[in-house]
Amino acid sequence: MKNFIITGIFLLFTGHAYTQSKVSALYDSAYVFYEKNEFRKALEYYDRYYTSPESGLDNYGTFFAAMAACREGHKEKAIHYLKLSAKVGYDYYSYDLFIHNPNNTCLKDTPEWKEYAETMKFKADSSQASITKTREKLEDTSKRINERDDTYWNSLTKDLHSLIKNYNGFKHPAQTGFWTLYTLQVNDTLSVPYLVYIPESYNPEEKTPLYVYLHGAIVNRLEFSEPANVIYGPEAKFIQEQGEKGSFILYPFGRKDFGWLSHQEAFEAILKEISIIKSLYNIDDNRVFLGGHSNGGSGAFWFANKKQSPFAAFFAFNYLPLVYSGNTTLRNLQNQTPFYGISGTKDRVFPIARVNEIYDFARQENANWHNRVLTGGHSLPFFENDSARMVFDSVITQQRNPFPKNMIWETDDIRNGRKDWIEITALDTTALRAAWHTDLLPPAVKEGKIKRPFNRHKTGAVRATVNSNHIYLESSGVKSIRLYLSQDMLNYKQKVRIFHNGKLIRQLKLKPDNSIMMEEFRKTGDQVFIVSNIVDINI
Fold first, then answer.
1. How far lies 279's CA from each of 148, 150, 412, 491, 524, in Å?
2. Going by DSSP bridges, is the β-strand pair 283-293/248-252 parallel, antiparallel, or unpaired?
3. pTM of model > 0.90
4. CA distances from 71 to 46, 64, 101, 241 (A)
5. Phi, psi of 285 (to 5 degrees)
6. Which domains does the chain possess?
7. pLDDT, tens only, 37-60
8. How far apart are CA 58 and CA 88, in angstroms?
9. Which of 200, 218, 392, 470 is most buried, most CB within 10 Å of its CB?
């Protein structure tokens, strides 16, 4: 719990993800030395950090600086840092960590410490009572929908496509206009919380948009945040505004070892959470939007690069447009799903110059990416610039096209090989690349200004077009492809002809497969993109 609060809560106070700036190295080093009981070194780094003009005050760093000063015999400096800690505020979860800290010997008998302890005790008790009450409300399952009635789905045998497409038997929750807490059992040892906001205007007979919001401060967050605090925090309040306008909100929780920068399992969990919400509430499959702030915005950029299919649009605030795991595949942004970004002129965490070096290049390569620059720092959407909210005016107008006639998709990992109705299921990266399959590398990457590699691994790519009942495929570095075909995409009364690199390779007379239809529907909960058949093609 201690480490989580240090790296999670203090970011809430400051509004900066310091772990990704140069100044943050001082803060991180100070804490490392503090944990090793090397208090002289810790104090040296805390002093350097807090005298830097780019630093910000937080209650943990200032408190540990006070403890380090105390252990090194600098009583006046310890009092100075203690006052700064009290000035910022109190983290009531860690009352015992603060008050019973064994390093506070030089402060225990001072009036400053007595005032600090008394104030903190009173506020900690009051806060804990409030948190307990809020958590009970979030965990109250009586006012929401908890499970889908599978009796109906298990009884279906004929005309499954029409029955899935036209199903409208969603129940009305006992309450609307509130946050509720669900959990997803990811594996035998990990249960992941996620919040859902049910809009007050929700009518189970009408399709309702869904926003998926990824919070920031992932990189060093060792535990999931306390949901009872999150709903009153700036990020939940910010995205709740869209819920109050009539949309569902899905707010997943991430942490350092299960987050939306580097962990495939966490990305897959988000998709699973979306499918669960679709099974319980009448969500508009063609108006599901995903975005976030800071690390959450980078997570949205990952989905735009790796798993676009369920989404109508992406959005991000104060983000770094790089994929932290695997390749940054800018080619995938050439598809129809738009990406809307907001960057701040004064953002020291993700400087606008770095963002633009990638953005400008991607736009030259026809990326469907629209970035706007506003005056403000890293926390501008929450505290500094109301115009940041204008991004939602663009997002909410977007509709997913589940059956695009033209697509391009590139991947370095077949777990992320699918785009809508086509999937790369095996790579052949030793094969000679097609002329159109080039590495898209911004000049800043080539020149070493951006250190993170864009192309860690070799990739395969495919271009696909559907025209009437003809499917045209071009591939490069690909060994096999899977097609997810639907009666809403093709005329099942006629043969389907599949061409690869200009050559006819398959002719099919398709008949809808109910088992495939139900299996795919259970995976996604999608009532619009209904997969009737799957066709595998070896290149």
1. 6, 10, 31, 28, 9
2. unpaired
3. no
4. 14, 11, 12, 47
5. -60, -25
6. 2-135 (1.25.40), 139-145+175-395 (3.40.50.1820), 406-538 (no CATH)
7. 999 999 999 999 999 877 777 778
8. 6
9. 218
